[in-house]
Every structure is written in C-alpha cells, then in structure tokens.
C-alpha cells in the first residue's frame, strides 16, 4: 500500500461525511419547529441579534444518542 493511499481514503471518507452533514443542515431549515422550541434563547435589540438554541440542542442530542445506540449496539 502506498504511503498516501490510506490518507487519501481517509480524506475521501471525511469529505463524504461533510457533504452528508451539509445536506442535513440544508434540510433542517425546512423542518417546522426545529430551532424555535420553547426555551431557546433569542434576544434582539436594535441591530444586535443573539440566538442560542438550548432546548433544540438537548432534543437533538437525545435523538442522536438513541439512534446511534440502536445502530451501533452489538
């Protein structure tokens, strides 16, 4: 195996993962309710806007934990 072959495979895999994540982020904006749950922090004053999706992050973390445990359980 050439010295750069394993690195090339790793970069191709990382690129596929980034494309998948990017596609999911594009689709996430079209799902109603995502990012606008009660408990998310949204502050708008003048020309300053601050948004921190606390509850959305917790819900997504729980869902991903359940999904990954189902798929990777041995």
UniProtKB/TrEMBL annotation:
<feature type="transmembrane region" description="Helical">
    <location>
        <begin position="7"/>
        <end position="28"/>
    </location>
</feature>
<feature type="transmembrane region" description="Helical">
    <location>
        <begin position="48"/>
        <end position="72"/>
    </location>
</feature>
<dbReference type="Pfam" id="PF11146">
    <property type="entry name" value="DUF2905"/>
</dbReference>
<keyword id="KW-0812">Transmembrane</keyword>
<protein>
    <recommendedName>
        <fullName>DUF2905 domain-containing protein</fullName>
    </recommendedName>
</protein>
<keyword id="KW-1133">Transmembrane helix</keyword>
<keyword id="KW-0472">Membrane</keyword>
<dbReference type="InterPro" id="IPR021320">
    <property type="entry name" value="DUF2905"/>
</dbReference>
């Amino acid at each position: 195996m050439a010295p750069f072959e394993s690195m090339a495979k790793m970069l191709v895999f990382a690129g596929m993962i980034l494309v998948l994540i990017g596609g999911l982020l594009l689709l996430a904006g079209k799902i109603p309710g995502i990012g606008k749950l009660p408990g998310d922090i949204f502050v708008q004053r003048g020309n300053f806007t601050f948004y921190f999706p606390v509850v959305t992050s917790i819900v997504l973390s729980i869902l991903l934990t359940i999904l990954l445990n189902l798929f990777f359980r041995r």
